[in-house]
């Protein structure tokens, strides 16, 4: 049942199967096959004491992924499709529309939080999060209108907002009747609501699972999409501006990769044997 569920591109309540459990599955399958072939299929040769090169490589990567602290789940196309559907019901200057715009840009560029929004609680348009540099030309880490040609503020322009210092992600708050900056808490709240709807997670019972979605999920999602589309690791590192190769820890065994792998083995089986 696990195999059928995973091969169709689903996950088990956002939880990965542990390496120790996979080891047990491999042993059980090998023991069954050995009754008919007298060979442990996990090993390359009969006399080997260790697992074969292919399986040992896979298990090594799985164990390495388990060592990652504070892992994040990717923001994916299904979540974004739902976000666009929800945003269509709101005014263009609303927080929901501004978040959806930011999510779409983030999937294309792999935004860091500081590149498009603000830390939690930093919503005042007159004092965006600074980057330690001085001078009127760089008052915020986030992208500003002057950084991009032929673009206005994401959501709303206001006489008090400056194209040279105000971040793109600005929305109109109808309660305070003021423009506000998008912050990390608003991102997490909306993204986790989308994840709960898409993955059928309960807001309270599955709170620990939902906490795996945050602003960093945009970078993870962008990385997974490029990997699925066949970009090399070096290309992904360059496009998404990763400083190291740490992003390889976010590989996902999605359905399209499984189909490509199966197709490769089908082609291998079709080759003439010498």
From TrEMBL:
Q: Return the Gene3D superfamilies for the record.
A: Intergrase catalytic core
In terms of InterPro entries, this protein maps to:
DNA_brk_join_enz, Integrase-like_cat_sf
Could you tell me the superkingdom of the organism this chain comes from?
Eukaryota
List the SUPFAM superfamilies hit by this protein, alphabetically. DNA breaking-rejoining enzymes (SSF56349)
Task: Give the signal peptide as a residue range, or say none if absent.
Answer: none
Keyword NAD part of the UniProt annotation:
no
Gene Ontology molecular function terms on file: DNA binding
Q: GO biological process: any one?
A: DNA integration
Give the keywords, sorted.
DNA recombination
Q: What is this protein called?
A: Tyr recombinase domain-containing protein
